[in-house]
Amino acid sequence: MTYQEVLENARKRMAPRCKVCPECNGIACKGIMPGPAGKGASRTFQRNYAWLSDHVKLEMDVTGGDQERNMELELFGKTFAAPIFVAPMGLISLAYTEDMTDKKYCDAVMPGAKAAGILAFGGGGPKAENFYEPLEAIRENGGWGIPTLKPWSVDVVKERLKEVETVNPIAFAMDIDSAGLPHANLANPPMLLKTEAELKEIAEATKLPFIVKGIMTAEAALKAVRAGAYAIVVSNHGGRVMDNGLSTAEVLPEIRKAVGNSVKILVDGGIRTGDDVFKMLALGADAVLIGRPYVIAAYGGGAEGVALYTEKLKAELKDAMTMTNCTALTDITMDKVRIV
Amino acid sequence: MTYQEVLENARKRMAPRCKVCPECNGIACKGIMPGPAGKGASRTFQRNYAWLSDHVKLEMDVTGGDQERNMELELFGKTFAAPIFVAPMGLISLAYTEDMTDKKYCDAVMPGAKAAGILAFGGGGPKAENFYEPLEAIRENGGWGIPTLKPWSVDVVKERLKEVETVNPIAFAMDIDSAGLPHANLANPPMLLKTEAELKEIAEATKLPFIVKGIMTAEAALKAVRAGAYAIVVSNHGGRVMDNGLSTAEVLPEIRKAVGNSVKILVDGGIRTGDDVFKMLALGADAVLIGRPYVIAAYGGGAEGVALYTEKLKAELKDAMTMTNCTALTDITMDKVRIV
Amino acid sequence: MTYQEVLENARKRMAPRCKVCPECNGIACKGIMPGPAGKGASRTFQRNYAWLSDHVKLEMDVTGGDQERNMELELFGKTFAAPIFVAPMGLISLAYTEDMTDKKYCDAVMPGAKAAGILAFGGGGPKAENFYEPLEAIRENGGWGIPTLKPWSVDVVKERLKEVETVNPIAFAMDIDSAGLPHANLANPPMLLKTEAELKEIAEATKLPFIVKGIMTAEAALKAVRAGAYAIVVSNHGGRVMDNGLSTAEVLPEIRKAVGNSVKILVDGGIRTGDDVFKMLALGADAVLIGRPYVIAAYGGGAEGVALYTEKLKAELKDAMTMTNCTALTDITMDKVRIV
Amino acid sequence: MTYQEVLENARKRMAPRCKVCPECNGIACKGIMPGPAGKGASRTFQRNYAWLSDHVKLEMDVTGGDQERNMELELFGKTFAAPIFVAPMGLISLAYTEDMTDKKYCDAVMPGAKAAGILAFGGGGPKAENFYEPLEAIRENGGWGIPTLKPWSVDVVKERLKEVETVNPIAFAMDIDSAGLPHANLANPPMLLKTEAELKEIAEATKLPFIVKGIMTAEAALKAVRAGAYAIVVSNHGGRVMDNGLSTAEVLPEIRKAVGNSVKILVDGGIRTGDDVFKMLALGADAVLIGRPYVIAAYGGGAEGVALYTEKLKAELKDAMTMTNCTALTDITMDKVRIV
After folding, report:
1. Which of A155, B284, C164, D39 is deepest in the core (most CB within 10 A)?
2. A155–B contact, CB cutoff 8 A
3. What's the gap between Cα C282 and its chain centre?
4. Global model pTM greater than 0.90
5. What are the tens digits of pLDDT across the range D251-279?
6. Interchain pair B220, C61: CB under 8 A
7. What is the complex's ipTM, to 2 decimals?
8. Cα separation of C211 and C119, whole Å?
9. Share of chain C above pLDDT 70, in %
């Protein structure tokens, strides 16, 4: 199977909501809700993509000689083949087609990611099963996955963390911005915005590293740091929680500046290629999360499609490192890109 | 009735001049005059919409905890359910379709607004009836409306203010920029530009709060303040009085800076969603006026459509407050948005 | 006849080269050469229009009271009804349709301009008749026109100036940028770029005021001033002498700053409406020249069309003055617009 | 044969991959790989063209008098009729149509360039024949060409330089950015990124002037200078080695600033017309390389087409010099353009 075949197959299986566009930029699916669209007029989805694509350029330099390019990432005490994670994606059948349940999706991305040396986050949703299905998939995948909890009440979170611990995952995440999701009002148990104190209580309830997802300002990042987060995800939920938000790429440098090295920074939003991964690392991220393209890979090729897309990303990232004289991820610094 | 049905119904009743576009941005109706278009090439109409949409972004922050969001507005000694007013719209049958007289329009927006806890301005026009019909509607609505006077000679204004007082409205407005309207030359009595002294004479002719509508510079705002205005409306008449004007959003911050808290500031121009309301408040407004979308709501669903659209705006504004950590309108300050 | 009818009539008579577009912006005619297009890819034509349209906005202020708006211009010791001239246009039948000779064109614009209180420049071309036909039209129009000489050798210019003097025109112009015209190589006598010394020799060869057309830099403007020019025309020949030039509007303020009040400044390029006239005056011009729209007016309505279009411009300029609190042309200063 | 006929002929022979667009800007061929497209989404190809076209404008000044315009270039101890070279283009049949081998292409561009007083670079590719065919063409053309070596191991380079010397060319080039080409992995012998030390070793292996092609930063330029390069080519390989690179025009001024006059600077990327040549010289280049348009000229008219296109460029460059008051290439300085 080639990646091209994955796309063609996905195009058939995902119609009509997702068109598997040549550039997944939020234009063709605008207003398709439920669907892959961003909120409202998809402005934030589109901005995530367009800002990263149009305003960040790589500084080509091929005078460093022929070298090995090492894109391995050390995180959570583990080694990953590349600084790439599969973002948490839930309610697949609602947003795309009924052809794919959340469990089947997890069964594609989790082994697929593992085969390519990376790892997938589990998704979530308003119902209990939206939490338990991905958790079960992580268990079946030997704990090689990161469950994502919704911002339920601290008591509910503590209870579920006990269940999370039984699958022995690498870490756990909470997408604290879920309250802005289109179906947030259907959530049971309800989703509630969190304070720094509540985040701290959650962080202290388990020894698992805590990933706070949904940070868009320096101030919020510092709260997460003080609360004891191991990592934050600079994210606006792929544009699904706001129609008029900033892009993640444009706020990333100021967030890194504010937190220094006190926390790991992941980021999602509009990342499609290895060049995009490179850009996000240069802007301050330790690693990236990629969502919609992995759904396409899963529809189009199952676990094999997920692995194939990941290998493509790795080859592109290696290319980008080669053309900018970087031999390791730590070489990918702000001076390797230009904001235009 | 759903808001979607309101739009579909409006699309049938408003053809061909207004197409009830997915985004009411002044592009499809460009040049349709009489019609909903802006003056000339609709540049100011389009700029109102585009500047607000493209250059003002919300700073998402979901680390403030779960809280009540209070969007009540105190103004004119009254309490409104949201910082939203229905803008004065007149000559409906001329600009849209003959299906709707100004009186029928008032009979939709005034009770509809009231049902949703807000209030509608009455519109105007070149003929006597364009003044008396909305006034009558306000009377029938128990004074829950704001009549809009044209900038007639001070003597005519004084006379009509006496009639205004008989309906006991909350305030009265004058759109001092009417002289630039396409049909201004047909007005009888004639519409005349006002000086600060004349505005003062008008303000002093009644105890009703005076709202000066059609301010686009700091200097003009200060004149209105000195003349005794209770509120100003930063407005270019939805782009109908100039083809090459600035957008209201881009001049709003400098006007607020100039007048400080000495006057209430309302604003219209390109506001379509609760996010837009949020943006205008962050840029310096106390409340907003919305025009064209309410005409669509009135055509598509009468009073019920007007209430429905208002509830949609309120839900969106609440969402925006939730996602930016605002609990009251006073929290919606300049640092909650970014001009990009 | 209405202006709308003028346009419809012109659309029939000018096909296929000029489409009489709703906005005459250099897009539809791009590459049509010979034709109304700009040079090359019409970039300079398009930039003239787009920069003036998109980057210059009027500061609306309606708090100055009801006043007379006087748009009369004193220039060359004469009074004109508005600060507007018909630009020199030649080789009409080549650029548009064979339906209109240069003489017939002059017979439309010269009396039409006169009827509306303004004045037309005569055009030119590579052949002798391109000079003599407009000159004859000016004679027939009682000297109410400005002949435009090509940058022939100084000797040829001096000779022809004697003939110019016999028609007793208000002034004479030379488009010194003609060397860049598409058909410049066919010129007989040849067209030659001029030095400051040569311009001076020409200025001193007659008592008629000398208008140097084709200035785009402060330095060139100062040369024209030192050479004794009465006026300069900031112009890139409507984009016909360069494909990658700046727009006239964007260089106008720096040229005015350089020359102060030592010379009158006219400007052309992308001016279509009274708002555009206002903008150019605010940016530093004393008056404007308008070309392509007058050709359309002449094809569509002859002298009557030319007068009609001029009256439309005057009404629009008056409107712009009304909405910005200007009572005379001297009020139209830089602070009445904003460059965005 | 006219240039128009060259284009029409090329349009037939080059379908379907290259459409011979009115503007060769990387839009219509986007994603056509193999083909004339840029890498990935053709962003760098498009940026090369768009930045040069949209952000660099000429300062028109026609007050310098009638003068000779000399566009002769002294370089490599030779005199060229214009500061223009045919860029190295290889694998023609793969990227365009099978109608044209690399040898046939060389047989068109080398004599065609010579006829017009300029010179063509030989192209290259992954196989041995991709090197030897152009070299043979240069030999047949009396050494009037510049062979381009791939960045093979220094030993291989040295060996081949001996063969290069036998054709007695004016200089030799190496496109050190080849490692990023789509087919780089097929190269035999392999292509390897070079260090400054390796470049130095290559420079010292022959008396032929060494042209280092593929420089995009000041730092890399300084390395090439220290390595003993006679000239560098500011180039991103027409956008074929990176999808998210900067345009060559935008980095050119900072590279010139860094190296001063210590090295000759050539540049390619988006250059289509004489105006573009002028712009690149003003931004800091000594001469330019042009690629895709010469392939079109060769398909459409063979050697005659190449000469015709070159004459067109020369006429346009002369025009640009005329309209900006430049008499020699040294007059084409930064103040003759404006970056907008």
Report:
1. D39
2. no
3. 17
4. yes
5. 999 999 999 999 999 999 999 999 999 99
6. yes
7. 0.96
8. 14
9. 100
